[in-house]
Amino acid sequence: MNMRNNEMTSQEKSRTAPNKIVLWIALGLVLLCLLVFGAMRLFKPAVKELPPMPTTLLGNSVTVVDEGRETSFTLDEMMDWHDTQFIGQYSAINNWPSKHFYAAWGVLVSEVLSRAGVNDDWRTLTVSAPDGFGCTFTKEQFESPRHYYPGLLEDGPDSEELLDGEYYGITFWDGPKIAIRTEMILAYGLAKDGNLGEAAASIQSRQGMDLLFGQTHIGDQNNIGFVSDVYRLEISRQEPEHWSNPSTYPLDGPVAKGTAVNLEQKEMSGGFAKIYYTRDGSDPDESSLLYNPSTYQPELNGPIIIEEDTIIKAVVKGLGKYDSEIKTFEFTIK
User: What's the whole-number average pLDDT of the chain?
Assistant: First the structure.
């Protein structure tokens, strides 16, 4: 009996030996998995979460005021207008004058007005910031085609081969300068002298929206009208005024050879009023000589030296008002 029990115990041990090996292998695999998992947690690189879009910062909403009726839109609302977003670049000249490029993501100002129910009979639009700075546009100035000039800081590519002036959506103006159509926007992503990627990255940290618009010509000093932290768009149906006419000092007439003639404009315009002139008898426009390019460097603003009998024609142009009359000044050498 004892011998039989001993035999059975021996047989049972021989049968259970493989099971113990399997158990130890399984246990080892479990321990290995735990070690690998722990190492992964220990050495897992940190993932930085992007901050949420700011919703309570200055300029996170815009109010359209139309004859006392106010309509407000939040930044979140405007960013959801997917079909009316504009992503592009802007060339700009300020009143120093210095030249810059801007990359921007924004919403069309025309869409803001449309969704606010503004009728098409308005005459001026004033875009304002909380600090009191603002820019006014006549309806004609608002609707004028505006462009981005990639060649503002250097010579643009040659366009002589283009017969009709347009090629794959790029319009050629001012001889060899390429001009790409842009839109007036409220920018919620902006990079000065940067690229579109940097503008997109700025969306998370920017406070407010900025008014941006293109140039009407490659010398247009549009940067003076850019408004930061826009909070108000005000519509008026009153007819705009005209800029006051230019004048000269000294008055035209007989002068000594070498006389320095200054062109003047009496209104305090904050740099918005620009005097364009010619000396060949032709009517001046925005492509003519600019008499007052700088608000900060008066030495850049004229004068015109009269060395021979000269006819000067001058006009005042600027945002917010209609052009002045074209005035003619005749100087003769005594």
Answer: 82
